[in-house]
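Weekly structure sync, notes
Attendees: PL, DS, HV (note-taker this week)

Item 1: Thioredoxin domain-containing protein
DS walked through the input record. Source organism listed as Nocardioides jiangxiensis. Sequence as pasted into the shared doc:
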Amino acid sequence: MSNRLAAATSPYLLQHADNPVEWWEWGPEAFDEARRRGVPVLLSVGYAACHWCHVMAHESFEDEATAALMNDFFVNVKVDREERPDVDAVYMAATQAMTGSGGWPMTCVLDHEGRPFFAGTYFPDQPRHGQPAFRQVLTSLAEAWFKKPDDVASAAAAVAEHLRQGALTASATLGAADLDQAVRGLAAEFDPLAGGFGGAPKFPPSMVLEFLRRYVDARDSGTAAGDDELVRQARHMLVRTLHAMAGSGMYDQIGGGFARYAVDRGWVVPHFEKMLYDNAQLLGLYARRDNDLSRRVAQETADFLLRELRTPEGGFASALDADSLTPEGHSEEGAFYAWTPAQLVEALGHDRGAWAAELFHVTEEGTFEKGMSTLTLRHVPTASGEQARLSEVKARLLDARELRARPHRDDKVVAAWNGLAISGLCAAGTFLGRDDYVDAAAAAARLLLDVHLVDGRLRRVSRDGAVGSHAGVLEDYACVALGFLDLLQATGDPAWLGHARGLLDVALGQFRADDGGFFDTAADAEELVTRPREFSDNASPCGQSAVVHALATYAALTGSGAHRTAAEETLAVLGPLATRAPRFAGWSLAAAETMLSGPEEVVVVGEPGPERDALALAARRRPGAIVLVASPAETGDDAALDLLRHRPMVDGRPTAYVCRGMVCERPVTDPASL
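Item 1 (cont.): predicted structure, written out as tokens:
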């Protein structure tokens, strides 16, 4: 038996390198072997921080008897969904079509052409809750393959045809009435008691909240007309959800950063894995809000990214696991984060421990499992003495928690998610006045340029400074390009514009579809059963909605009509989903809101100092605005960007120019007039 995962770059694949299963990586060699042996391909897809992936691995993939069945009757292929989102997208679509739901771990069985004829998610080692045991599933599938080949071929052909018919019909570009309708649709699914949308489990709706932020601001400021009741509803959904998440058990109240989602409607118990893409987006969202709570959450989340996810090479790791070891040596979900009243007293002393238990709602019964509680902070003390006490308690609990066994870190660097982190850190750096956050964003960007960009094309993943072989997909090009454009605005360095342009050139040349939208994989990428093309946002922006933002931002910075047209055409492709299911199109809606009358282009010119900083901060408060800050010497005839040329100060004071489509209003010199 040989397990071929020992040389993989993916931490998830490496977790399975010692399994008795004869795993292969995804590739033509595995399918050649299946043809040679005359057996089907068993595809198992997951990721390193996935709790149920670990459970299935322990129950089945580490079991000698189960592995023997797999090895005898299948060629077994293990895929990291974060490393190969294209493979994951194709077979997740098949799983959802065949079962009505999806998730990870994902198990598909394929014919020799890669067409699935069976799909599912987690299977237990014993029959449980109406589910068959995994070994029963394996036996039935092997029997069907060998005894009913015609049925297998018919099922595989039907699924493949279904996957090829997944396109949407483009509509007109989203207008103001469509955005109003999206707000009504969101209001119908809003949870008025707990905030957020839908019931349990409850996910952080980062992109939807950014749309609502832009929608409310445009109508409050008078740059867009709006129904007063709709604006009130949008504002309530935004504020209620931001406050609920900040005080929830999903937010790490002592270490900063957000867990993946809450398993309950009230945001009390999280699924404890911490993902880079969630925290990058929420960081930017909170940083752009002008209140004490949002500033605190943004700073704590940025500090979490730098403290726990930053790699020695300057990039950001993908995730922290949900599971960690208990003092008894057992691996349990949430063991690193949950507390008992006795543990609080042990760390803080009796008086402070009792105070902390009441404040964080840590009970004798427990709000989680085995008498443990998550930490929630629904009411933040307002008195200065109590705030100082809270800060001291959080610091001491963080020190005490460091003595526990830490969750495993998935330390691969994913291009798209680092692009999101760059954008989030730029927002935090500029709004909170933290140059170190912007410096961290620039270091991550340099890693992407130096390591991930190979012969002008992005690679998806690196680890320990070594780039992997998997090609970047559309979301990589789009999120990294937008990160570079945000760095341009945060630093004033025009080199980032050229780097973004190179990525967008590849996106337009390799990923464009005939209807004006984009595919997720390049024209010269590996050919799969179908060429994947995602229209809806999930935990992070889909490639198409992300590229709209990058194209529109580039157009606003340069005046490029071609990039603006491409953004509008793609938005038209995304329009039907955005109006029909706005919860899954938040990033498209955010782009549409900004593109109704913008993006606004703001140039702030002046010598460094408080006056220029005040103008720049006021400009950046405008959702979706493109903001460049420059000294007078950078705005002459030889300015690096057309938008900067001929922008003198007025009366020797720092001055702001507000433009739309390169046409500018009169310059102003105070934030209120701006």
